[in-house]
Amino acid sequence: MSFSPLIRQLIDALRTLPGVGQKTAQRMALQLLERDRSGGSRLALALTQAMDGVGHCRLCRTLTEDDLCPQCADVRRDDTLLCVVEGPMDVYAVEQTGYRGRYFVLKGHLSPLDGLGPEAIGIPQLMTRIAEQGTFAEVILATNPTVEGEATAHYIAQLLSNKGLIASRIAHGVPLGGELELVDGGTLAHSFSGRRPITL
Amino acid sequence: MSFSPLIRQLIDALRTLPGVGQKTAQRMALQLLERDRSGGSRLALALTQAMDGVGHCRLCRTLTEDDLCPQCADVRRDDTLLCVVEGPMDVYAVEQTGYRGRYFVLKGHLSPLDGLGPEAIGIPQLMTRIAEQGTFAEVILATNPTVEGEATAHYIAQLLSNKGLIASRIAHGVPLGGELELVDGGTLAHSFSGRRPITL
Ligand SMILES: [Zn+2]
Ligand SMILES: [Zn+2]
């Protein structure tokens, strides 16, 4: 019972951040209060504006407060390439490789045991996006190199094959069982250049 | 340029938290946006209320939004013992040892090279607090076991000695050069029970 109610409330709220335990939350709360109140207030405002204002891009479904995200709004990008990823963080990772085509952001991967089928992760919207755009010559499946990510890529490749589209899978320069967003940019760039058509 | 302005603003603001770099801030921002908007809004509110509402306890100078902190407001604590620490986090650490006397929280330690003398860290207020309370039989100097913390303890012990008060220093069970708040509770409890009068 050594902290006052408002400080305890702040420590509890900071623990909702990923990777932040009790001790880290205490340090964060007290450091803001003792040394950076304006930083704490700025963070509060940024959180409120983001939580209230950020939705999803109309075309690629990534997080953005605008109708179109920066990648979809950029007219100079390559409209023949579409890269499919599992989440918004992966867009950031793939951008580091120098890729300058378009994106589609799934809501994770297929996970039948959790009841997450094609509809739950946005595969129908992906197919609609591809059909409406009409310019994609190749769809790069950059789901995570995990069992679920592979299965999701394979499922999408099958759907695309039925429509006569080329699907490619990023090369296994990325370590199996890892998360795409944790891979360094160089490795991911290699795995992009080494991508190959999916054989069904 | 892969995140929209509100998301970039949130990532930048999260980096003001201690120990949070660019990649961690990105994960935090996207995880809140994708999975826990209400948690993000709760954090914003907790930050605003704490940054605007938290001041300092009238008696011990620790952080609190009330006139008195929980430790000073508790009438069951021992009014013959005063523990002097360098910051609010140390109050939390000392509480874990089972100590149930009173506290005084300095603003850090003496640091002549940084121009931080006795006034800057609140030593005059400490002496006033001791004089006005009039019940303290022992003052436990629990500043950090660093060169600066030792010097600060020695300086205060000298002032107290001039007034005929007993000053004690927590035993060196705590590792030299470390930070009090990083010491585990057991070690700190040992160092409390092994405290001894300061010989000048
Ligand atoms: Zn978009
Ligand atoms: Zn107090």
TrEMBL record, chains A, B:
One of its GO terms (biological process) is DNA recombination. Pfam families: RecR_C, RecR_HhH, RecR_ZnF, Toprim_4. GO terms for molecular function: DNA binding; zinc ion binding. CDD domains: TOPRIM_recR. Coiled coil: none annotated. InterPro entries: DNA_Rcmb_RecR, Rcmb_RecR, Rcmb_RecR_Znf, TOPRIM_dom, TOPRIM_RecR. Residues 80-175 form the Toprim domain. Keywords: DNA damage, DNA recombination, DNA repair, Metal-binding, Zinc, Zinc-finger. The keyword Zinc applies. A zinc finger (C4-type) spans 57-72. May play a role in DNA repair. It seems to be involved in an RecBC-independent recombinational process of DNA repair. It may act with RecF and RecO. PANTHER family: RECOMBINATION PROTEIN RECR (PTHR30446:SF0). Belongs to the RecR family. This is Recombination protein RecR. It comes from Pseudomonas psychrophila. The lineage of its organism: Bacteria, Pseudomonadati, Pseudomonadota, Gammaproteobacteria, Pseudomonadales.
